[in-house]
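Lecture 7 notes: from sequence to structure.

We start with a single chain of 308 residues. Read the sequence below before looking at the structure.
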Amino acid sequence: MDIIVVLNTMLVLFGILMLGYIVNKLGILDEATNKKISELIVKVTSPALVIASVCGDSVMGSKKDVIFILILGILLYCVLPIFARIVVKCFKVEEENFGIYQMLLIFANTGFIGFPILKSIYGDGAVFYASILNIPFNVLIFSYGVYLLTKGSEEKAKFDIKKLVNPGIVSAVLALIIYLLDIKVPATIADILGTVGDSTIPLSMMVIGSSLALVPLKEVFKISKIYPLALVKLIVMPIIIYVLLSLFLDNQFIIGIISVTVGLPSGSMTVMLSNQYNRNTQSASIGVFITTLFSIVTIPLIINILPI
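Now the structure, written as tokens:
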């Protein structure tokens, strides 16, 4: 991958992010509008982007590759919790942040940052593959993720299968069916999905920028342990995953997508769930803030270091 192309992509995304930051400071966007736009992205534009990714002829690989990446995704999200627990224990994270920091390491911001970056670098096929990886991701975050947040508290939550019926899962399953059954989507519908889906990129980056504008900078520098954990998340983890996958695979497209996905900044769902279960939401927010900020540099760095 040409580093100039990657840097240009990240600069464009960063520019849109900064625009979101500025318009928040100008009072055009606020927390309420962020939530509404986020809901629009999660429920409409991002699912449209996923389905549109299989409506054209740009999906690389065979049906066997698609099933294979689903299996790899299941294995990945079996290994990541073990790795995250070891890392958090090594850093001697305090009890109140023990579960939150594990979630920050395990669950990446695939929908808001991953899809736009993967589409910009690899094309529509990468969005489809990443959406398949999101199936085990969603199962894990609403089961093990909730367990981490409620462990040791009086508020115990049971696994709710209804949480899995969400636009992200539904769009991934629909895309999988369309692809595996070779369903031809009418051109007009494909164009609508493509146009709506493409709005995910500017909308998501503006919301992230606007959200970062709401984080008090004083609090960011008080939590020192988040910085080494962020480097583990953004640099060490994707390198380890790349090396492990390279031992068994020769498909650089699949290896690249999984490695980049693992090296994405922490996902905002950790903040939302922390808030829902009355955990340390501020630590979760700062973790997402720091990893998002650092990723502007680390993502091009990782893509340049690794031959993906």
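Residues 272 and 281 are 8 Å apart (CA to CA). Keep this in mind for problem set 3.
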